[in-house]
Amino acid sequence: MSHLSDDVLARARELLALYPHPRSALIPICHLAQEQDGWLRPEAIAEIAELVGLTPAEVVGTATFYDMLHTEPVGRYLVSICTNIACMLRGAYDLLEHAEQRLGVRPGGTTEDGLFTLEDAECVADCGRAPCLQVNHRFFGNVTPEAFDQLVDDLATGRLDDEVPPHGTLIRVRREVGLRADPQEISEERRAMAERQAADGGGA
Amino acid sequence: MAITDPPKILTSRLAYEDSHRLERYLATGGYQGLRKALSMTPAQVAAEVDAASLLGRGGAGFPAGRKWSMLRKGPIPYLVVNGDESEPATFKDHVLVERDPHQLIEGVLIAAYALQVGRAFIYLRGEFALGLERVQAALNEAYAHGAVGRDIFGSGFSVDIVVHPGAGAYICGEETALIESLEGKRGFPRIKPPYFPAAIGLYGEPTVVNNVETMSNLPWIITNGAAAFTALGEGRSTGTRLFALAGHVRNPGVYELEMVKTTFRDLIYAPVLGGGIHHGRELKAFIPGGVSAPWLGPEHLDVPLGQDEVAACDTMLGSGSIVAMDDHTCMVRAAWRITRFFWRESCGQCTPCREGSGWIEKILRRIEDGAGREEDLDLLMDACDNIAPGVSWPPQQTTICVLGPSIPSSVASGIRMFRDEFLLHVKEGACPYG
Ligand SMILES: Cc1cc2nc3c(=O)[nH]c(=O)nc-3n(C[C@H](O)[C@H](O)[C@H](O)COP(=O)(O)O)c2cc1C
Ligand code: SF4
Ligand code: FES
């Protein structure tokens, strides 16, 4: 029995078919594995390696470069508070301090119940609503300490299950069609087109 | 200067709740640009884009038409769209991918036709969970509509588009790092030359990389013609641009403005735009084009928002993101936070960038904490000089990519513009702002 679920495996194979080289599917497939487990378990890494034709060490070597890929467990909700310049100017560090107190953990830490991991994040491109944060990469802007407490309560009681799905940034992304164009045919068409244009003296 | 009221090239649909759906897109002129492009030859489409003088909106401002023509001599297999948007305070592509994904897709299709590529990749930063959802959903609709895939609208032209997620790394916005990342590797920028991924790009093949906003302009340019686009703006800075305004203004947000016709003062103070500095305070300084850009002071408020106009002030319009800082802002802390970002995001390949960012971050923190020494100011400038010799603008480069030479921008700006404030930290042994 494989560790990755049938659904994840089926979607991983769809992803592999989108790229000229299987390795390109590595990061998207890591997102799928995290959707299942929350983080990259060694069992998942071994299977991902096999899918894309790499060694597990190569998968880990790549994954550890990226902040969103976790080789250690994280909480059910990853709370990423942006403290970069635009958010800092509008109170991000006060918000972070409040979050540390409320959750009882420092950035990088996970609450004992495994619900929340707190992160001190770099800019998440929502600076117009500073200070802002993401929970499992869903945006929340203009976050006051009161709004933060409400958010934590809502998450803990499952009231935000629709808005904040579990891990895996691709969890609601489904490609409905496979590739349609045949690369061989395309390159022949293109060559003919280029020749025609060269003959016309065009080609700008 | 007056604020002009140009046609909305990029933000015309944002008033609609369902701006991301195909139905709304078609009801508002969607995919007409693509139909028109398909009735022209690829060379004609490329010539139109060239004539529009569309400067790349990703930061470097290189003309899209010129980039394309450097390549169009041979077959180009791949087009890659840069939607990594991670330059701090930049949040305009975020709006385009979430709110008007069809406009982006149509732009990509027009570029794909002009370049005759067989496959296009839209690389979106992994944190854009909703953006990834929206662009893929729009792509599904576009395939069903016959706008993507085989024999588009019966024209005989075929191209596939793949939406690809990043996974959290600022450096993957640098185009060669983005290509490495798209190949499933660590996002290490490649050594130049070649200067453009043009020659040796994705999988070693010629590749065009363009920004999300650059692409999103194409439907309008093809529908309305290059002349209508160059009628807006001035000189090389044509059309409109999305300006992301953040920091201490009353109304932060993304504003589409005609190039050159609007000044920083208009953007920050006009009641319909930034609305002025919050809490009735004064402006102390502002960052004109993302945190890689040197800062400007209130004396530069009347500089127009144009590529060359801002470059003339020894800084850049960059990614079009402006951060206003009020008179209660500690400049040591601002420089420290920006440096901390570069230190965290340096990919680590080059010593000046990897080590320099760490040293500067530590020294700035020491000054902010009240433990700095007067010599630290010279030490900081010396560290900057080791990263980008001369600490001038545009910076000298000793590293593989320009992340390194971007590090000195804020530190040097802080010291040059606010030397007394840095020294006050040292003398008082504390931050004067508490
Ligand atoms: C460190 C670094 C980060 C960058 N980040 C981005 C980015 O997030 N988005 C982007 O479009 N361009 C970014 N760029 C610029 C790209 O390398 C490239 O110039 C651009 O995508 C080309 O598209 P354009 O010509 O349409 O602007 C970055 C460059 C550097 C050096
Ligand atoms: S300059 Fe910095 S980010 Fe760029 S390649 Fe060198 S170490 Fe990496
Ligand atoms: S600085 Fe916080 S989201 Fe950009």
Protein architecture, described:
The complex is a heterodimer of chains A (204) and B (434). Chain A has 204 residues and is α+β, with helices and mostly antiparallel strands. Chain A has two domains: 6-71, Orthogonal Bundle (Arc Repressor Mutant, subunit A), CATH 1.10.10; 77-156, Glutaredoxin. Chain A has eight helices and four strands. Chain A has helices at residues 6-16, 26-37, 42-52, 56-63, 85-89, 92-103, 145-156, 183-199, and strands at 77-82, 116-121, 133-135, 138-140. In chain A, helix 1 runs antiparallel to helix 2 (26-37), helix 2 runs antiparallel to helix 3 (42-52) and helix 3 (42-52) crosses helix 4. The radius of gyration of chain A is 22 Å and the shape is globular. The termini of chain A are far apart. In chain A, 42% of the residues are buried. Chain B is an alpha/beta fold. Chain B folds into three domains: 22-230, NADH-ubiquinone oxidoreductase 51kDa subunit (Rossmann fold), CATH 3.40.50; 233-326, Roll (Ubiquitin-like (UB roll)); 331-428, NADH-ubiquinone oxidoreductase 51kDa subunit, iron-sulphur binding domain (de novo design (two linked rop proteins)). Chain B is 41% helix and 12% strand. Chain B has 18 helices and ten strands. In chain B, helix 2 runs parallel beside helix 6 (101-115), helix 3 crosses helix 6 and helix 15 packs antiparallel against helix 16. The two termini of chain B are 39 Å apart. Classes of the chains: A alpha+beta (204), B alpha/beta (434). Chains A and B meet through helix 2, helix 4, helix 5 and helix 8 of A and helix 3, helix 7, strand 3, strand 7 and strand 10 of B. Iron/sulfur cluster is lined by residues 171, 189, 346-350, 353-354, 399-401, 403-404 of chain B. The site of iron/sulfur cluster has 14 residues of chain B, from helix 15 and helix 17.
